[in-house]
Amino acid sequence: RRADALARAHTLCHTADGARIEVVANLGHRAEAAPAVANGAEGCGLLRTEFLFLERATPPSVAEQTAEYQAIADALDGRPLIVRLLDIGGDKPAPYLPIAPEENPALGLRGIRVGLAHPDLLEDQLRAILAVRPIGQCRIMLPMVARIEELRAVRAVLDRLRGELAIAEPVALGIMVETPAAAITADLLAREADFLSIGTNDLTQYTLAMDRANPAVASALDGLHPAVLRLIGETCRGGARHARWTGVCGGLASDSLAVPILLGLGVTELSATPGMIPTIKALVAGLTLAACRTHAAQALECTSADHIRALARAFAPQEM
Ligand code: PEP
Ligand code: MG
């Protein structure tokens, strides 16, 4: 069985009934890329670029950023690399980014709002990504989108830079679905976004109105809450309406109990922590989409996350 798992680790992932499911890795540093590939990652579904920006007095230059992104792209050896634009804010301050103290940092200047408030930072990061070769290996993803204007504003800068740099090839620009607003209007956003990737950590925080950093409530935060699952289903339907794929890059993609439900709801890409890739690939290979759909429909009728977890444990194959 171990030999089977290893052999499977480096093949493209499909369910037992033949549906293609991309299993990719979340990365937060260049050193994580090669081990992720060794674990069978089919690419990177979320590069958290904050590591380049924190704990320093000045922002990284375009050249410095390009060198990091290029090293990661090279380590992925041609596999897709989804680079998430800077996602810092009041809760993760940087000295060169003066953000006035906020009463509610989670509702304040964070995610793509920071880039739009500091166009120089946004433009430098986009220039650095556009300098990576081959063009097209890097895809760009916006964090914390709540309004379509945010996507349009970044698309306008990206198109201007592609013009300046004479890049004729399209560069995919997708969004993270982390706010209830984005999930509910996924069909409208998907008209203009090339892909959707659900950040279940923040989506759960904002849906349940429970601060993920507050220990007094964080233990009650479970992405398998029926409200979150309904929003995931809504997002997948919205994406499908415009033939966009919907992935999950939050913690649920690394949760064996959640994966069958996610597939049943229409998710076709799972971006997991590198260490979980072999487990997730083996799990998906043993599932049928038909069974996942029935299971997800049952989950959507459950009243609580605990109830859904009990249902998921009963569904899970023995070896889990
Ligand atoms: C998420 O919110 O689910 C996510 C993947 O982003 P982060 O955990 O970096 O906020
Ligand atoms: Mg997030």
From TrEMBL:
Signal peptide residue numbers: none
Subcellular location: Cytoplasm
Family named by the database record: Belongs to the PEP-utilizing enzyme family.
Stated name of the protein: phosphoenolpyruvate--protein phosphotransferase
Upper lineage: Bacteria, Pseudomonadati, Pseudomonadota, Alphaproteobacteria, Sphingomonadales
Span of the entire protein shown here: 510 to 829 of 831
